Amino acid sequence: EAQVTQNPRYLITVTGKKLTVTCSQNMNHEYMSWYRQDPGLGLRQIYYSMNVEVTDKGDVPEGYKVSRKEKRNFPLILESPSPNQTSLYFCASSLERQSEAFFGQGTRLTVV
Amino acid sequence: QKEVEQNSGPLSVPEGAIASLNCTYSDRGSQSFFWYRQYSGKSPELIMFIYSNGDKEDGRFTAQLNKASQYVSLLIRDSQPSDSATYLCAVNTGGFKTIFGAGTRLFVKA
After folding, report:
1. Is the pLDDT assigned to residue B1 strictly greater than 70?
2. Cβ within 8 Å, pair B97-A58
3. Where does residue A62 rank: exposed (0-12), middle (13-18), buried (19+ CB within 10 A)?
4. Per-residue pLDDT for A39 more than 90?
């Protein structure tokens, strides 16, 4: 089954404690993105990757890091999480940059 | 700042009626347009995409694009209670960024 898998689904952490949210896709897609979704603001792009070892900032990259060492994986790293990063996070992949996005199940992160 | 604007709603329609969802975008260079449906607590899923001016129909759904007016819409015919969700308009400007609107909440009353 074609899918994008995120882990964990839910995470509560404390300010400053480094965390990683994993994302993996099995569709051999080149293009992957991370979004955060906040009430009233919709989905905002954090980072995207066009292929292995090629990443770039989206609209809200501050406080986040990503890596793309393998085509299927695109982890999101919060080196020092803060409460304003409490949000619902989605990973997505696309066959190419202008095609539809397939989304993971989402990760609800709470930073206290 | 490139923007995609949607009325947040809620838009309430009776079962069997036509629901009309609208979206405007600011970047005239935008090339591809998508409508996603998102149920509460779930991830977005693609409903329709459209690249060219005019109408595109798929079952009960019709996407309409007017690039001159920078306007894209989604019509849902014979609305069902299961259509109740938030509908996200997304626009790709030709680069690697896709910009999403904040979404319109639709309620279909049985």
Report:
1. no
2. yes
3. exposed
4. no
